[in-house]
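Practice problem 4.
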């Protein structure tokens, strides 16, 4: 692409606004952010105004590739889109990028918009980004609220959603609520794994409830998971 552009520059046909827009889109798709930004400046000079197709391409690049101040740049570009320029795929990308940046408030705003528009998230990667964001800020009740809404709206569910809830409930010694998560898992056909029991065991140990912790170890053995070599039953 760059070789073709240099050929234009050195030949009798000078690059025009369309040429710069094509370069802009190419750099955006390739994730070459610095070149995309410099080409954006040139395209603005030649075209005067960048159309929504290329604005979306830049937004997609900022969402997919980490870059300094990308949230600020994303929000500046979003202001250039009109109310009729909404795209479900862009909404999902924005949920993920705000989650990756740990901006829970912004993430929840985009989640709310997706739910309002009946958009269904179908990728585990996006769901795990959301989980991680809630986990990092220790927001178990907000996570629990999100999981309920995701269940009701048909979003992609995964065992990690429920394991994260269990870990966070256990951290706060909310053991009854931790046990209730097991029923939720059964409802959506997520069977208990070795990790499920291990989370419960650690929660009981952290509360000093050794008898219940040993009971969990017995359940692990019963289900054929065995015991970690460093664990001793007392």
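Answer key:
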């Amino acid at each position: 692409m760059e070789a073709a552009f240099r050929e234009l520059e050195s030949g009798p046909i000078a690059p025009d606004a369309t040429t710069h827009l094509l370069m802009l889109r190419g750099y955006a798709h390739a994730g070459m952010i610095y070149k995309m930004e410099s080409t954006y400046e040139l395209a603005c000079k030649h075209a005067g105004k960048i159309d929504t197709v290329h604005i979306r391409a830049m937004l997609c690049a900022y969402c997919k590739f980490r870059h300094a101040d990308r949230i600020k740049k994303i929000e500046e570009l979003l202001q250039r889109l009109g109310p009729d320029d909404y795209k479900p795929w862009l909404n999902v990308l924005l949920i993920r990028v705000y989650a990756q940046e740990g901006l829970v408030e912004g993430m929840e705003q985009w989640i709310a918009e997706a739910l309002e528009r009946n958009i269904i998230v179908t990728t585990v990667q996006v769901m795990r980004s959301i989980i991680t964001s809630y986990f990092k800020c220790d927001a178990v009740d907000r996570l629990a609220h999100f999981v309920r809404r995701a269940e009701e709206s048909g979003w992609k569910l995964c065992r990690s959603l429920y394991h994260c809830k269990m870990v966070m409930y256990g951290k706060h010694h909310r053991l009854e609520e931790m046990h209730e998560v097991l029923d939720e898992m059964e409802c959506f056909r997520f069977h208990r794994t070795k990790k499920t029991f291990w989370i419960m065991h650690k929660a009981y140990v952290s509360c000093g409830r050794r008898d219940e912790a040993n009971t969990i170890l017995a359940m692990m053995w019963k289900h054929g998971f065995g015991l970690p070599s460093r664990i001793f039953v007392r």
